Amino acid sequence: MHSYNIVEIAIPRSKKKEFTTLRKSYAKMSSNVCEAIEDAKIELKKLKAFIISMNNELKEKIQQCEDISSTLSVVDEECSLVDIEPFCGVVEQFKIEAADKHIKEYLDTSKEYFQSNPIADYLKKELKASATYPSLLCETITYVFDWKPDKKTLDDIKDILSMTSGKLVKIRYINGGSISITCSFPYHLTGVLITQLMDNLQFLKKNDLKKLTIGYWIMWEREEKETEQLLEEKEPKTSLKEEYQK
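Structure (tokenized):
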């Protein structure tokens, strides 16, 4: 029987630019492919019918489109950094050779990106550092951000992290003034760890602990009323050194 661990990996603001590189390549491909499709003078009715046949959920959006350009905008929205099949389908169906080279170029670029980009190396290093005990398997990674990207960038980040790590991606943000600390430990020492934490819980609470979690179990979490009371009291916190000398 295997136990499962959730590993948290910090994605600092300094890594932000690594997530925008591929988006630039995608934007270039999308622009060139759309231009090639428009130049092909496809009958709008046939294009709309084909797109709906690929994905019936797009029917309402496609029916509202009045020209090729707006129709292709819907196709573009359905694509992502890791899935450009909607574009590929249109190009293949209507035999638009002028768009083939742009699609191939992007596929080659994205393949190289996922194999050698700095994010991949960073994740490999962090995952290796999180390795603990042979029986402890990681099925989920939570990525902790100290910055909040816009929705489009966030979708790109999720695609990139999922493709790069091969793990289920969860995103969490650190609010200003808060710090999240994650520790890995051998599964067979869980009982010892819980005992140690119980013995030191009061000290941790005095030092503004907000939440203590072991695996899926929330061992302790400060209630909102407790937080408000602490702010009103404004008592000086006990330092580690002072607590140790008691």
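Confidence is low (pLDDT under 50) at residues 132-139, 227-246. The longest helix spans residues 97-116.
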